[in-house]
Specification:
Elements lengths: L1 H16 L6 E4 L6 H15 L8 E4 L6 H10 L6 E6 H8 L11 E17 L7 H10 L5 E4 L6 H12 L9 E4 L3 H9 L5 E5 H10 L2 E7 L23 E9 L4 H16 L1 H9 L3 E6 H21 L5
Parallel strand pairs: 1-2, 1-3, 5-6, 5-7
Antiparallel strand pairs: 3-9, 4-7, 4-8, 4-9, 4-10
Helix pairs in contact: 4-11
């Protein structure tokens, strides 16, 4: 009995001395992509700021464009307050288009976004279109003569950026818009430079080199303000088209955690977003500030999903 008591006390002491369970970030894709970047940067900065006692574990759960990770969190980790998941505009786009097998955006809690890759509209260097107004007017005059290339499939975020931009500019016939979906921004640029497409839509970071080399001219950046380092590119808003289309980078957490734990994640993400480390990471990776948190972000996600659902129905992706 005496030996058992000593063993029990020793076990209790070892348990008490054990480090707390490490926070975990799920990146819903293989290493090297945008979601993996989000997890590793946020996790690193959380540790450096002393918000968490241990290194954040990054787990890559690829499959179904983020759908496998989403289903796993909803089904198996609904009340796990130690896990958070990298998300982006692609996440809400796929949810809106029912690409996650019936999953809905209200099955998780949306924490916030701390940066975004601004959308951009570019044309070939010899294009007759000198500004966004010229391009929009050409589409209105004869949409069959203006093809947009993009680095995502039909219904993907690049396609949606064009449709949302034209809708805001007064051209609402989504089915009439010509869009060439390609496998990545580089292929879309090639189509545009070669004259097979009259314009290209993508994220600023993926076509920065082409802009600087003079292969294309940027007509508009789809952000609230001009982007540092690209101050000569006007926003769409400056040209009368009220659209912001940022490929945002943020996180969500399980639905079943407490309000206290949810607010903790919101606070931590705010501190990461305000840190010098994150400012440097954005500058090095072509991202722009894009801060929305907590209840405001949950409203943003809900409205974004509703908007995309409407466009998807209009172009025949949803019934």
């Amino acid at each position: 009995m005496k030996n058992w008591t000593r063993a029990a006390v020793a076990a209790l002491m070892m348990s008490a001395a054990a480090p707390a369970m490490a926070e975990e970030c799920i990146a819903p894709a293989n290493p090297g992509g945008g979601w993996d970047f989000t997890c590793r940067q946020i996790g690193r900065i959380m540790t450096e700021l002393g918000l968490v006692p241990n290194m954040v574990q990054v787990t890559n759960v690829a499959g179904a464009g983020g759908g496998v990770a989403y289903a796993q969190v909803v089904a198996d980790r609904n009340d796990d307050a130690s896990v958070f998941v990298a998300a982006s505009s692609a996440t809400t786009t796929r949810l809106a288009e029912n690409a996650f097998a019936g999953a809905t955006a209200d099955q998780v809690r949306w924490v916030g976004t701390i940066g975004g890759d601004p959308g951009v509209i570019v044309v070939g260097k010899d294009s007759p279109y000198q500004n966004l107004t010229d391009l929009v007017e050409a589409v209105k005059a004869d949409s069959s003569k203006v093809a947009f290339a993009g680095g995502s499939a039909v219904g993907g975020f690049d396609h949606l950026k064009v449709l949302m931009m034209l809708d805001k500019a007064g051209f609402g016939d989504a089915r009439a818009v010509k869009y060439i979906g390609l496998d990545g921004g580089a292929d879309a640029i090639t189509q545009t430079v070669g004259g097979f497409a009259q314009a290209m839509t993508g994220d600023l970071s993926e076509i920065t080199g082409f802009i600087k080399a003079g292969d294309v001219r940027a007509l508009a950046v789809l952000s609230d303000e001009r982007i540092a380092g690209f101050d000569d590119i006007p926003t769409a808003k400056e040209q009368g088209v009220d659209i912001t289309a940022m490929n945002w980078r943020g996180i969500y957490v399980p639905k079943g955690i407490s309000d206290e734990d949810y607010n903790k994640w919101v606070d931590w993400l705010k501190q990461v977003g305000a840190s010098e480390q994150w400012q440097q990471a954005m500058a090095e990776n072509g991202l722009a500030p894009y801060d929305i948190f907590g209840a405001d972000f949950e409203t943003f996600v809900a409205e974004n999903v509703t908007e995309i659902e409407g466009i998807a129905k209009e172009i025949g992706l949803l019934q």
